[in-house]
Design a protein that fits this description.
- The complex is a heterotrimer of chains A (326), B (294) and C (257).
- Chain A has one domain.
- In chain A, 72% of the residues lie in helices and 0% in strands.
- Chain A is built from 16 helices and no strands.
- The N and C termini of chain A lie far apart (46 Å).
- The C terminus of chain A is likely disordered.
- With 294 residues, chain B is mainly α.
- In chain B, a hairpin with a 2-residue loop joins strand 1 and strand 2.
- Chain B is globular and about 60 Å long.
- Chain C is of the alpha/beta class and 257 residues long.
- Chain C folds into two domains: 167 residues, Rossmann fold (3-Layer(aba) Sandwich); 76 residues, no CATH class.
- Chain C is built from ten helices and ten strands.
- Chain C has a six-stranded mixed beta sheet, sandwiched between helices. A four-stranded antiparallel beta sheet of chain C has the order 2-1-4-5, with helices on one face.
- The N and C termini of chain C lie far apart (43 Å).
- Classes of the chains: A mainly alpha (326), B mainly alpha (294), C alpha/beta (257).
- Chains A and B meet through helix 5, helix 12 and helix 15 of A and helix 4, helix 9 and helix 11 of B.
- Bound molecules: adenosine-5'-triphosphate and magnesium ion (MG).
- Magnesium ion binds next to helix 1 of chain C.
Chain lengths: 326, 294, 257
């Protein structure tokens, strides 16, 4: 019964959509303080390589590897954030784009560690780790009537689902707080925020570091989902792809990039043409969005409109990311 | 050996200058970094390959075709990615950046579809011709590149300082609103600027194609990034800064390849960006400006 | 003495916006800072709030020097300002604008915010209450949930004041709060400033509306071309020859233009 319902392919697609959601949120956090980063593919690759190398070469457990990778990437993000801070939006975008390319060049050339352009194979696979872990507990997929590959993809999907919900929960709570208000005011007017007593240096670096950490985290997950990474996975195209989740979906509320990631990752599955011309469509979308709806499809008004029916139930959550009150 | 490297570096540097000037012109007038410039440049290079290799026409026709095609692309870029954002209420300063990123990714993938993903050689009838003075070999191609680059630099400087259109452009670069009050047709100046910048990109594309004997859709990004590095090095919107920055980058890359690790050649530009941004955000030749507050 | 301006000069790449200006503000007073357009009044605010560093001179606040502090640190010390060209967080609600103003008096960090500790909840409740009180003071209570950009001009000016008040300043800098207001709104503003004064907040007021300035200020400092040309009570300023000339000169030009 259960086994007929579970299609590993669909689960895999859904898993990668969840990964894209995390990436979308990571760029949304950075954009949320008015900083445009084109370095998120670079951060992603740092996370991916760190965790891959730690687990493969140093036998670090997968979970620990992912955590170290995320934290390390966040740290790099803060380092990059400091000089980037002194820069207006345009410089920051260029500097981060340059950063992404430097990282890529570094990974191509540092062959001893990264295996160069060929990439790293045989990275411990999240699904198989889960399988062998549960088998060590004396559980086998057959016990609930599933084939091994069905169990693996189901388990991976569920893990990613829980992680994504956790990430979204975290940032919704953050944006409904003092921190979120500071982010939003900085996005709207840096100088006025500063004059109102907000330490813009701290908050911009915080946002940049959080975005980097999350991208690194997603990168580490990516490495353990695909079991194979190479520098070309993390080029300019990836950076633009991450960006477009937030630009298309919207960068005012967290639901924007989530919607963007879901919609843009699902469409190619339905229409082959879209998949073939995917990046041309992305390019055209960026131009169109800026001309007609720069805030993205989902903005505060849309969220308020969706939430209208149960309007009077809650009172008093004040923040910015998610206006459920009023 | 040293002199040869110097010549190689100057050749490369002068190409970079032409790439960077395209960014500088647009930034000077519009205060916008045109992220699509690299890809327009790449289209110029492909026009060169198609005209000379596929159609077998002479090089000057290639230049003409490249200028026309990239000029048209520049027009479209301005018309669809920049003009709709201008003068609109509440448009973030990131909007033009994002929409030109859109153009860049669109053009790159369009090139994939039209021309294929791989490398295409760019051979000219005189690719191998050279003269040897003492122990130093100089290729005609290098001389050609150098001469064209110098002509473009002088032409641009002359055009900016002596012609009416150039003066209108400089007035607009000072202040668009004021220029428009003074009766400058700013809309036309802007369109003109983007077209000229793009056409210069087209010429640079051919020069790069010849110099490296290779053209591919990804070159827009790598050379575009170098162009960006140069204008940051030289100070955004600063024509002379772009020239100096281009030469510095060309020379340092060449010497790194000759005497160091060639794998990291492409990293120089970006490391330079980051160092400059930390140490001297206004660029080597820029002056710091104060923003207005209150 | 609340604020002491000591020989402040500011040069903007050739433009001498302020030259050796000195004055001081006493606890609880409303000090007027007036002068023709371009006299350097707003620049003086930018110096006090560290938006720009002064070219020379020093500013003391409650006996301590403000040199080298960043704008947000100055706000935390107890000086907050409004902007001449309104700079609200236009997409946030009125109440959220005020809550942002309260930021520097709060302490919760990321983890406390995410896990909603008891302390954080308490703090958020206080912020809400404070904001509503301040909105009450400026008369915007009923607009709490309105998006700031949808307010009328006069209301936006009052929200600027509310946002600054939320930082609990000891010294409030108002940059042309009456600009663009009609007579009734100006009268309300008069009452509001009186109310703020009653809260024991010292005020430095830039204003072109002379009747308002004369009515509300205890003392007035006059700038012209970046220099202080007079200082004194409203009546002494009204009769000061140099001040009249400075203003008449401007009016003449206005008429010619
Ligand atoms: N950021 C800046 N850069 C360059 N010049 C400036 C800057 N800010 C102010 N100025 C110049 O300093 C002088 C004083 O300006 P300021 O804004 O302080 O005048 P003001 O007294 O506030 O005038 P108004 O009544 O019109 O508001 C003006 O000549 C102005 O052009
Ligand atoms: Mg002023």
């Amino acid at each position: 019964m259960l086994s007929e319902l579970i299609n590993p392919y669909y689960l895999q697609v859904a898993t990668f959509i969840l990964l894209n959601i995390i990436l979308g949120v990571s760029i949304y956090i950075t954009l949320g303080t008015g900083q445009l980063s084109l370095g998120h593919a670079g951060f992603m690759s740092i996370g991916a390589y760190t965790s891959a190398i730690l687990t493969l070469n140093y036998n670090v457990p997968l979970v620990i590897g992912i955590i170290i990778a995320a934290v390390f990437t966040g740290f790099i993000g803060v380092l990059i954030g400091f000089p980037a801070l002194r820069l207006q939006g345009v410089y920051l975008a260029i500097a981060t784009l340059g950063f992404g390319e430097v990282i890529r060049v570094l990974f191509i050339n540092w062959e001893g560690l990264t295996n160069g352009a060929i990439g790293i194979r045989g990275i411990p696979h999240l699904g198989r780790e889960i399988l062998s872990f549960s088998e060590s507990l004396g559980f086998s997929p057959g016990m609930i009537g599933l084939k091994n590959n069905q169990f693996v993809s189901l388990a991976v999907f569920l893990v990613l689902l829980i992680i994504s919900i956790g990430v979204i929960w975290f940032f919704i709570r953050q944006s409904n707080s003092r921190i979120g208000r500071a982010f939003a005011s900085i996005k709207m007017d840096e100088e006025a925020s500063e004059a109102m007593g907000i330490n813009i240096t701290y908050y911009k670096i915080l946002a940049f570091g959080q975005g980097a950490l999350l991208a690194g985290f997603a990168g580490a997950l990516y490495a353990h989902l695909t079991a194979y990474i190479s520098p070309s996975d993390f080029g300019y195209h990836r950076a633009v792809e991450i960006l477009i989740f937030a630009i298309f979906g919207g960068s005012e509320v967290i639901w924007g990039p989530i919607f963007g990631a879901i919609f843009l990752s699902t469409m190619p599955e339905f229409l082959r043409v879209i998949s073939e011309y995917r990046f041309m469509i992305y390019g055209a979308l960026l131009v169109l969005m800026m001309a007609f709806r720069p805030q993205g499809l989902i903005d505060t008004n849309v969220v308020n409109w969706i939430k209208r029916p149960r309007l009077k139930k809650k009172e008093g959550k004040h923040g910015t990311g998610n206006k459920k009150d009023k | 050996m040293l002199i040869e490297q110097l010549i190689n570096g100057l050749t490369l540097g002068s190409i970079y200058v032409v790439v960077a000037l395209g960014y500088t012109l647009v930034f000077g007038v519009l205060n916008i970094v045109n992220m699509g410039h690299g890809e327009i440049f790449m289209f110029g290079a492909f026009m060169g390959v198609i005209v000379t290799n596929s159609l077998g026409l002479p090089l000057y026709v290639a230049f003409l075709v490249a200028i026309i095609v990239t000029g048209i692309l520049g027009y479209f870029l301005e018309r669809f990615a920049l003009r709709p954002l201008r003068g609109k209420e509440g448009v973030s300063h990131l909007a033009p950046l994002i929409s030109t990123i859109g153009v860049s990714i669109f053009l790159e993938n369009a090139a994939h579809h039209f021309f294929g993903a791989g490398n295409q050689p760019f051979r000219t009838s005189f690719s191998e011709l050279n003269i040897t003075i003492g122990s130093t070999t100089v290729y005609y191609v290098q001389i050609l590149i150098f001469v064209i680059a110098i002509l473009l630099m002088f032409g641009l400087t002359f055009w900016l300082s002596k012609t009416k259109a150039g003066k209108a452009l400089r007035a607009s670069a000072e202040n668009l609103a004021v220029a428009s009050l003074l009766g400058v047709n700013t809309k036309r100046v802007i369109t003109q600027t983007v077209i000229i910048a793009s056409a210069m990109g087209g010429i640079a594309g051919i020069l790069v194609g010849i110099a490296f004997n290779s053209v591919n859709p990804q070159m827009g990004l790598s050379f575009g990034l170098k162009g960006l590095a140069i204008i940051i090095l030289g100070g955004l919107g600063n024509v002379r800064g772009a020239m100096a920055g281009g030469l510095i980058l060309g020379l340092s890359e060449t010497f790194l390849v000759a005497y160091g690790n060639s794998g990291y050649r492409d990293a120089i530009a970006f490391i330079a960006i980051i160092v400059i941004l930390i140490v001297r955000p206004q660029g080597l030749f820029g002056t710091s400006t104060s923003k207005s507050k209150g | 003495m609340v604020l002491e301006i000591k020989k402040i000069s500011k040069n903007f790449g050739g433009i001498q916006a302020l030259t050796d200006v000195s004055f001081s503000i006493e606890q609880g007073e409303v000090l007027g800072l007036i002068g023709p357009n371009g006299a350097g009044k707003t620049t003086m605010f930018n110096m006090i709030t560290a938006m720009f560093p002064p070219s020379s001179g020093e500013i003391g606040f409650l006996g301590q020097s403000l040199s080298g502090l960043k704008p947000h640190e100055i706000t935390k010390r107890g000086i907050c300002r409004t902007f001449q060209n309104i700079r609200l967080f236009s997409e946030l609600t009125v109440r959220e604008n005020v809550m942002v103003g309260n930021h520097c008096r709060l302490t919760t960090g990321v983890l406390q915010s995410v896990f909603r500790t008891k302390y954080q909840k308490q703090e958020e409740e206080n912020v809400l209450r404070n904001s509503d009180e301040i909105l009450e003071i400026v008369g915007l209570s009923e607009f709490g949930q309105t998006i700031a950009k949808n307010l009328s001009y006069g209301q936006q000016r009052r929200l600027e004041i509310a946002r600054a008040l939320a930082s609990r300043p000891q010294l409030l800098l108002l940059d042309e709060p009456a600009a663009g207001m009609n007579e009734k709104e100006t009268n309300d503003l008069f009452d509001l400033i009186k109310k703020i004064q009653a809260l024991n907040i010292t005020i430095l007021l830039i204003e072109h509306d002379m009747p308002l300035v004369m009515r509300i200020c205890s003392r007035i400092v006059v700038l012209n071309f970046g220099k202080k040309i007079a200082e004194g009570t409203p009546s002494s300023i009204q009769n000061n020859k140099e001040v009249i000339e400075a203003y008449l000169g401007v009016e003449e030009e206005d008429e010619l233009a």
